[in-house]
Amino acid sequence: MKQALIIVDMQEIFFNHPQYYLHNNEQLVMNINKLIKQAHEKNIQVIFIQHTDQNEQNELFEGKNDWKLHKNLLVASTDKIIQKTKWDSFYQTELLDYLKTNEIEQLIFAGAQTEFCLDTTIRAAYSLGYQKNLLFKETHSTLDGVILNASDIINHHEAIWNNRFLTVIDGETKL
């Protein structure tokens, strides 16, 4: 089964400002880089999704420092970068066409934020026919919310996703 690793919104904004620091952000980057390295070794397509705001005043406007992919990610020239403007990485982007053109059948998800762009993209993928997807624990994250802390948000979403929208793998991060 042909796979693609999709990394959602791992951008500098989550590392440049303490109020936006992702939960366990250093470990998160190490775990995602482990997936990226394995994907490159196994010729699995790596796709970075990059949130891009249309408002020039926004921190995530194209070209601003906070908009850039995190500097410590192992981005290769063969990786695909797709910009999005909404929480759904498929909405008005080339992602679905790219997956179909490259005959990708299974998606491996990672990134941020758990309850926003990652959740929306995981559910959209399932609705679009990608129903055998994977997510490794500790390869996605978010911020503390008003009601739940980041750890509870992560655990809640993994419980909802697992065996419904994808399979959550607990254990060694190995493709």
Please outline what is shown here:
The chain has helices at 13-16, 25-41, 95-101, 114-127, 150-161; strands at residues 3-8, 45-51, 80-84, 106-112, 134-141, 167-169. It has 175 residues and is α/β, with parallel strands linked by helices.
Explain what the structure shows.
- By secondary structure, the protein is of the alpha/beta class.
- It has a single domain (3-169), classed as Rossmann fold, CATH 3.40.50.850.
- The chain is 31% helix and 21% strand.
- The chain contains five helices and six strands.
- The protein has a six-stranded parallel β-sheet with strand order 3-2-1-4-5-6, with helices on both faces.
- α4 (114-127) runs parallel beside α5.
- It is globular and about 40 Å long.
- It starts with a strand and ends in a 6-residue tail after the last strand.
- 33% of the residues are buried.
- The model has no long low-confidence stretch (mean pLDDT 97).
- This is Isochorismatase family protein.
- Belongs to the isochorismatase family.
- Residues 4-131 form the Isochorismatase-like domain.
- InterPro entries: Isochorismatase-like_dom, Isochorismatase-like_hydrls, Isochorismatase-like_sf.
- It holds the Pfam family Isochorismatase.
Topology of this protein?
Blueprint: E1 3-8, H1 13-16, H2 25-41, E2 45-51, E3 80-84, H3 95-101, E4 106-112, H4 114-127, E5 134-141, H5 150-161, E6 167-169
Parallel strand pairs: 1-2, 1-4, 2-3, 4-5, 5-6
Gyration radius from CA atoms, angstroms = 15 Å
Strand content: 15-25%
C-alpha geometry: globular
**How are the strands of the biggest sheet laid out side by side?**
3-2-1-4-5-6
